[in-house]
């Protein structure tokens, strides 16, 4: 750190925490809710850790008052949550389910009564199952009018109460996990289909942003992207070039479209040469250019390190398996996906300077500053950190959870965010992942992120009691002092 003194956080900085509908709500068939692709996927044997599902999750649907009361006591300034599309429109495109809307209205009202700014994510991966079956989900352009109707419903219902909106959560993660690594629904391993679906989602994103600007002129909207800076393993120019390539494949491919309305030239050319580029019409180009996000949501967990492919073949099988099975942010092609143009261009490797979490995710607070700097400098949009946190096994001992390791992790990241602000990055807020313990998509209830412990595990829902962890009280202090102690 090269500053004598860091700038303070602005007065209205939004200290928040985040969640997603499928991971917390439960009540998966209540009050008219339709099924989502995750409801089906998690019920199929072998797809999730110990067969865990979101059927009950942490039962937030029935405990929303208690959960918001804990947020208020903590002093939270913002709460990011997602809406389950199939709760609001059970079949994805037909009649609106008023009971579903009423749940979110209740949540938003409770938040506002407690001066907590709601941050609403429109899509956090739980596509209505009916749309998957009818249109092949994001595989067909026919889904776009359904998404537009869903957005219109939410914009009309909540335009006066919700200022900050997120369109898609981590489009890079859910398209690659769903269409490439077959670890999320629709469980496909086809790179061409991944790029095709991704393009359709880009069109849906642009459509939503334009509609929003028409209907909610005083609000702000943007996508949340899972960003990780890419480092070269060494100063070998070949490794540096590998990092430039990886940055295009892992970051620019999405961010350039969101923020500049066009695909990066180099990568598009590679995909075209390999015959796996999406079909982009002239109308598509006009639409993508027309939609401008007001801010960019950044989810930061870690970056990635790459080297040139000296052997002209992917890294050893065991290492790849490890990466793709546990870490959606590392998009290292497997041997059986050798048709991907990435294979000769870069290989993901471990960074020798960084420690890892129990799940093998690198802990890299400096990378957070690098990320914020890179993205802000390139796109000049205000940034909103919509996720950042540590997944760990937490132990309840004598009714308490001493998660000092989480406090250390968060404190380091908040500090580097403060440094990035001092560097000149414009930031709206920071939502830690997650407010309470939640269902991890693929790691059940074992991998915990919350400030609030939820007394349940993979085998039993127990009593679902909420128990604030040590990190809860630490964050409470941090918010009270607006981060001045960091
Ligand atoms: C992000 C998602 O990718 O990472 C969250 O937006 C998710 O929904 C979080 O829970 C942590 O992932 P995991 O696999 O550790 O639960």
From TrEMBL:
- GO MF, one example: beta-glucosidase activity
Annotated Gene Ontology cellular components are: cytosol
Q: Where is the active site?
A: 387 (nucleophile)
Instruction: List UniProt keywords, sorted A-Z.
Output: Glycosidase, Hydrolase
Keyword hit for Hydrolase:
yes
Task: Output the GO biological process annotations, alphabetical, semicolon-separated.
Answer: carbohydrate catabolic process
SUPFAM superfamilies assigned: (Trans)glycosidases (SSF51445)
Q: Which family does it belong to?
A: Belongs to the glycosyl hydrolase 1 family.
Q: Under which name does UniProt file this protein?
A: Beta-glucosidase
